[in-house]
Specification:
lyase, Gyrase A, domain 2, Putative pterin-4-alpha-carbinolamine dehydratase, PCD_sf, alpha+beta, EC 4.2.1.96, 17% strand
């Protein structure tokens, strides 16, 4: 249940250590307009669009580091109340983001993608 003082999403975005530009489509799905998604992906070069998802592969230095990356992503995903699909194969992580209840990509997917990029970089991946 959301607390007073704004939505959980708005509070999570405000707490990020970097600015998030507003979505040209508001809070709804971005997936209907390919150009909007492609322009957002310019700031996230490790990510690619596949249908209604954006995906990235992360290569960690070793298996324990891969698990630490997943743990750090889990903490931030809980804060944002938005959870990626994660496939772990030794030191390779495959991540996918979409907003199922909105029927496609939303600003929240791109926000979490940027957070994941920062986490991966912090762990040398």
């Amino acid at each position: 249940m959301p607390e007073s003082g704004g939505s959980l999403h708005a509070r999570a975005l405000a707490a990020l250590p970097f600015p998030i530009p507003p979505s040209p489509e508001g809070d709804g799905p971005l997936g209907k307009n390919l150009m909007d998604v492609e322009s957002r992906l310019k700031d996230l070069p490790a990510w690619r669009r596949e249908g209604d998802e954006i995906r990235r592969t992360v290569e960690a230095p070793d298996f324990p580091t891969a698990i630490r990356i997943v743990d750090a992503i889990a903490v931030k995903a809980e804060e944002l109340d938005h959870h990626p699909d994660i496939d772990i194969r030794w030191r390779t992580l495959r991540l996918a983001l979409t907003t199922h209840d909105q029927g496609g990509l939303t600003e929240l997917d791109f926000t979490l993608a940027a957070v994941i990029d920062a986490i991966a970089a912090e762990h040398g991946a």
